[in-house]
Design brief:
CATH architecture: Alpha-Beta Barrel
CATH superfamily: Aldolase class I
Strand order of the largest sheet: 1-2-3-4-5-6-7-8
Largest sheet: 8 strands, parallel, barrel
CATH topology: TIM Barrel
Oligomer: single chain
Structural class: alpha/beta
Order of helices and strands: EHEHEHEHHEHHEHHEHEH
Distance between the termini: 11 Å
Radius of gyration: 17 Å
Shape: globular
Number of domains: 1
Strand content: 5-15%
Length: 254
């Protein structure tokens, strides 16, 4: 049984003080909530502050990016070893904003994922198509390429989470439908089975991401094959994020 995961990607939001306050509000609001795993992914600068807030709770800490070397002359980068030392369990890899603004390639995503797994982090691997690719009926060819490339050389020696995030739905207020997401997620699970094995595929959590709100989360979680959500904008508003998690917990209890 795959446990529902709701991960909050705070992106480039919140100072240390703001991050601490937000984490406290979320922790307080979810005190009685069971049946769902929650992860918070603040900016690097706020990881330590958020860790201190959630320490001892069931909320996990995650980062938004990582480099593929353990240490060295790589100005501005953060290594998996550093993230583990600060208490991270998860790390987001291959987010569309990294691919778009920082020209992150499939090969770089693969190197990051491989090193993160080797060091003991759980990658949240993001895949998804642009609006132009969708209109050209290239959704699956793009997602399959990203997934296959990212997992090149991976033999199932660690846990991964996959997040299907159609680029055209991120931050636009226009989410995919549950049916749209389900169609791609079913193909992702099938591809995981081909690349690794059926056991790995059936145990891997696959999330949806893209304009997720408390009002539409069950549009996705009504399908058992969708294992949670990677939440962007709504994750930096405590009321919205708490609302999403509480609704997801209802699915987790069934």
């Amino acid at each position: 049984m795959r446990k529902v995961l709701i991960a909050g990607n705070w992106k480039m939001h919140k100072t240390n003080e703001e991050a601490e306050a937000l984490a406290k509000e979320i922790l307080r609001g979810l005190a009685e909530t069971k049946g769902v795993e929650v992860a918070l992914c603040p900016p690097f600068t706020a990881l330590e502050r958020v860790k201190k807030v959630i320490e001892g709770s069931e909320i996990a800490l995650g980062a938004q990016n990582v480099f593929w070397e353990e240490e060295g002359a790589f100005t501005g980068e953060i290594s998996p070893k550093m993230l583990i030392a600060i208490g991270c369990k998860y790390v987001i890899i291959g987010h569309s904003e990294r691919r778009k603004y920082f020209k992150e390639s499939d090969e770089q995503v693969n190197r990051k994922l491989s090193k993160a797994i080797k060091m003991g982090l759980i990658p949240i691997l993001c895949v998804g198509e642009t609006l132009e690719e969708r209109k050209a009926n290239k959704t699956w060819s793009v997602v399959e390429r990203q997934l296959t490339s990212a997992l090149n050389g991976f033999q199932g020696e660690g846990e991964i989470v996959v997040a299907y995030e159609p680029v055209w739905a991120i931050g636009t207020g226009i989410p995919a439908t549950g049916e749209d997401a389900l169609e791609v997620i079913l193909k992702i699970r099938e591809r995981l089975s081909e690349l690794l094995n059926e056991s790995f595929a059936s145990s891997t959590r696959i999330l949806y991401g893209g304009s997720v709100t408390p009002d539409n989360i069950m549009e996705f979680l009504k399908f058992k094959e969708i294992d949670g959500a990677l939440v962007g904008g709504a994750s930096v508003k405590s009321e919205s994020f708490i609302g999403i998690v509480k609704k997801a917990a209802l699915r987790g209890e069934t």
